[in-house]
Specification:
- By secondary structure, this protein is α+β, with helices and mostly antiparallel strands.
- Helix content is 44%, strand content 19%.
- It has ten helices and nine strands.
- The protein has helices at residues 4-15, 17-20, 36-43, 54-74, 106-114, 120-132, 162-180, 196-199, 204-208, 219-250; strands spanning 78-83, 86-92, 97-104, 140-147, 153-159, 255-257, 260-265, 271-276, 281-283.
- A hairpin with a 4-residue loop joins strand 8 and strand 9.
- It is globular and about 55 Å long.
- The termini are far apart.
- Mean pLDDT is 80; it is low at 14-22, 266-272, 276-281 and 284-290.
- It binds iron/sulfur cluster (SF4).
- Residues 35, 37-38, 41, 186, 190, 197-198, 201, 203-204, 207-208 line the site of iron/sulfur cluster.
Length: 290
């Protein structure tokens, strides 16, 4: 008898989307949000050391993608289209749309909703796919978000921006150069056991195993971290209020204003981005509702 866990684990190891990315010469756009050391482990094909429970989670994510892909096909999209920097989920050339599905936990879903949508790493990924497909400013990058636990959905979109794509391509090239040089060191902001990113990493034991040094915290450390958390929380909520107040005043603004250029699309309600002249663009607008 094969258990469901074995079935799901076997599926991901033989067919998993992450493993498929190795066919590319460099890192794919899907690695933008991931720990660079982990990306290095995958690039150098280090053996997976931790398969549970994250491997089955990845399998469930792959299966959700397959199901949604079938629905996209019914609506005229091409799905699973490979480019130089990874495989995009869906593309509709007549409508000039590139779609990427993110199936996420309830915690991440709620966090993204509170942040007016997915993080920069997700938009960079979409823009790199757009670049691979020869998109221009008439194209739209669409991010569909699905909560695996509740079934809630949200769709966000932004016009394809060649400057964002160029900056993302540059960043991806730098990350690729770093992993080609070897497996990068553990980043300063990762701390092994107890760190949710490391806890869901398939290389956790390989990364931290020989080191003994999953940090051990005494009471004084915990007190220090708790105080740090509270202090950060206070500034975070203050910053969020300031951000929301500024954002409300941006609505409808269009054009250069001193050091920044504000773009706003009247055809897509609440779509606006702030373009710092340094070249980095930040999406500040919630693009489409749940
Ligand atoms: S265990 Fe943590 S630090 Fe190590 S590769 Fe994975 S995510 Fe990165």
């Amino acid at each position: 008898m094969i258990t469901l866990t074995e079935l799901l684990t076997g599926y991901e190891i033989s067919n998993g989307l992450a493993r498929e990315d190795r066919k590319h010469d460099g890192l794919t756009a899907s690695t933008f949000g991931s720990c660079l050391r982990r990306a290095g482990m995958e690039y150098h094909e280090k053996p997976i050391t931790d398969t549970q429970p994250t491997t089955t989670v990845a399998t469930v994510g792959s299966m959700i993608h397959m199901g949604v892909a079938m629905l996209w096909v019914k609506h005229g999209y091409d799905v699973e289209v490979s480019g130089d920097h990874g495989t995009l989920d869906a593309i509709h050339r007549e409508r000039r749309e590139i779609r990427d599905l993110k199936s996420v936990t309830r915690g991440r879903f709620d966090y993204w909703m509170g942040q007016n949508g997915p993080p920069d790493s997700v938009w960079k990924q979409g823009h790199v796919y757009g670049h691979d497909q020869g998109a221009d400013e008439t194209w739209t990058i669409i991010i569909d978000v699905l909560c695996r636990e509740s079934g809630r959905t949200a769709t966000f979109l932004t016009p394809y921006d060649p400057d964002v794509a160029a900056a993302a391509m540059e960043e991806l090239a730098a990350r690729t150069a770093a992993v080609k040089a070897g497996v990068p060191d553990i980043p300063d902001d990762r701390y092994g056991k107890g760190d949710p990113v490391c806890e869901s990493c398939p290389f956790m034991s390989a990364c931290w195993g020989e080191r003994e040094e999953h940090p051990v915290f005494d009471d004084a450390d915990i007190e220090k971290f708790a105080l740090e958390y509270l202090a950060a929380q206070a500034t975070e909520s203050e910053a969020k209020k300031r951000k929301e107040a500024a954002k409300a005043r941006l609505h409808g603004a269009q054009g250069p204003y001193g050091q920044v250029t504000v773009k706003w699309s009247p055809t897509k309600a609440s779509t606006y981005t702030v373009n710092k002249q340094a070249g980095k663009k930040i999406t500040v607008g919630r693009v489409s509702g749940e």
